[in-house]
Design brief:
This protein is an all-alpha fold and about 210 residues long. It has 8 helices and no strands.
């Protein structure tokens, strides 16, 4: 006879999603490294063996959280950029969407960039990260084609854009900015983007080449 109150194994219809949500709650409490699959199972109300139905180990669970986060981030940037007709505005709004995502999903953000799981052994997370970054590269290339950004390596300019918004996002979610509200943080992020893009120093539009 089972003991009174003992969790029934696998009683959730969507066990994988329940485990992911339990992991996110633990990450919010203790960070992306200081928990175990057993604790995730306890939080989810399932047997301690239940997580192994979907995740080989803790790293696999963290990789799944990261993959989920990168997917949502990619969608958020594409959606924000798609609402703007001009290249520079598309790039700027994608950057603001990056910061908004970090504010909305700090646990995902922490796993995506701070968790120690190997992307070599979890290529799905690496692929999702690459898709997210490729959005920035594509937006930079679009601006360069329209002569709204300085010529040069689109990869370097995308890394510049990423460094800016990632730094703001990291400072914001760790409480190291003087700004506290989302409105204030995004206003500051917009200021940084406007002041830092190479095109800003040329009033946003590069001169057209002389015809020969």
């Amino acid at each position: 006879m089972s003991r009174m109150g003992e969790s029934k194994p696998y009683h959730h219809g969507n066990l994988r999603e329940v485990l992911l949500q339990s992991a996110l709650r633990l990450i919010a409490e203790v960070g992306p490294t200081a928990f175990t699959l057993r604790e995730v199972a306890r939080q989810a109300g399932v047997s301690h063996n239940a997580p192994y139905r979907h995740f080989q180990d803790k790293d696999a669970l963290l990789a799944a959280v990261a993959t989920q986060g990168y997917g949502e981030l990619t969608e958020a940037m594409l959606e924000a950029a798609g609402q703007q007709p001009k290249g520079l505005d598309r790039l700027k709004q994608a950057g603001l969407a990056y910061v908004s995502f970090a504010l909305r999903r700090p646990e995902h953000f922490a796993v995506m960039f701070d968790a120690p799981f190997s992307k070599q052994t979890h290529p799905e997370a690496a692929d999702a990260a690459e898709r997210a970054f490729s959005v920035l590269v594509s937006l930079v290339e679009e601006c360069q084609q329209k002569r709204q950004l300085t010529p040069g390596s689109p990869l370097d300019l995308a890394l510049l854009a990423w460094s800016m918004v990632h730094g703001i996002a990291k400072l914001a979610i760790t409480g190291r900015l003087p700004h506290r509200s989302k409105v204030e943080i995004l206003k500051f992020a917009a200021f940084v983007i406007d002041e830092s893009l190479p095109a800003k120093r040329r009033r946003g539009i590069l001169p057209q080449p002389a015809h020969t």
